[in-house]
Amino acid sequence: MESPFDVLGISPDADDGEIVDAYRERVKEAHPDQGGSTAEFQAVKTAYERLQNGYEPGDPLPEESPAADPEPEEAPPEPDDPLVEFLNFEVLEDHGWSLDDEDLFEKAADANLRSPDFGQFYVDPNDTLLEAAEKNGFAWPFACRGGACTNCAVAVVEGEMPSPASHILPPDLTEKGIRLSCIAAPISDDAKIVYNLKHLPEVSELLLPASRFEQASSTD
Ligand code: FES
C-alpha cells in the first residue's frame, strides 16, 4: 500500500498546511464527479485521515500488520453532494471585475487565485453553506447565524440555492441571486458562489454590526 504521503503527493516532512492544501487538491481530482473513481477518492480520504491521526513515515500500514485491529473507514461523501466553486468578493474589487461578468469564474481560474480567495468544496446535505465552508477550513464572515444581519451574504452566480422564507434580504436582492449562507445551501449539483458580499453597497447598508452578536467572525 502507498504511504499517505505518496497518495497525497507530498514529502514526508510536509507541514500541516501543506497536508491540508494537498488533500483539498487531491480530493477534488479524485472525486467521481470530477473524473476520479470511488476507490481513488476513498484512498485520498483514508490517507488524509491517517495523517490527521498522527501517521509517521515508516509506520506500518494495514496490509503490513494483519494482526492490527481493522479501523472502521468513514464513508465518503455522497458523490451527488453539491460542489461549490467559490470566489472572494474582495478579489472582484481588486481586479475591477463585476458580479455580472459572464466569465467571472473563468477569469478567476486564469488569475491563479488560491485558497481562501478561490477554490471548491462539497456541501453535506445537512449543512448550510456557511457550515460547509467552515468544515473545509474557511473563515467566511458571519455574525448572527440566523438570517438577521446580512454579514454572511453571498451571490449565487450559477446553480440553485433556495432562500428560506424568513430573512432580512429584500426581494430585489434575492431576485439578483443574493443569499444568506448561514441559513441556505445549494441544491444543484454544482454552484458558483461569490462570498464576502457584505462589501457590496446594497448589502452593506443592511448590515447589523457584528458586535451585537456573541460569536461574530473575526474577519469583521
Ligand atoms: S450571519 Fe447574520 S444573516 Fe447570516
Automatic annotation (TrEMBL):
The keyword Iron applies. InterPro entries: 2Fe-2S_ferredoxin-like_sf, 2Fe-2S_ferredoxin-type, 2Fe2S_fd_BS, 2Fe2S_Ferredoxin, Beta-grasp_dom_sf, DnaJ_domain, J_dom_sf. GO terms for molecular function: 2 iron, 2 sulfur cluster binding; metal ion binding. Belongs to the 2Fe2S plant-type ferredoxin family. This is Ferredoxin. Pfam families: DnaJ, Fer2. Residues 109-199 form the 2Fe-2S ferredoxin-type domain. CDD domains: DnaJ, fer2. Residues 3-56 form the J domain. The lineage of its organism: Archaea, Methanobacteriati, Methanobacteriota, Stenosarchaea group, Halobacteria. Residues 70-82 have a biased composition (Acidic residues). PROSITE patterns: 2FE2S_FER_1, 2FE2S_FER_2, DNAJ_2.
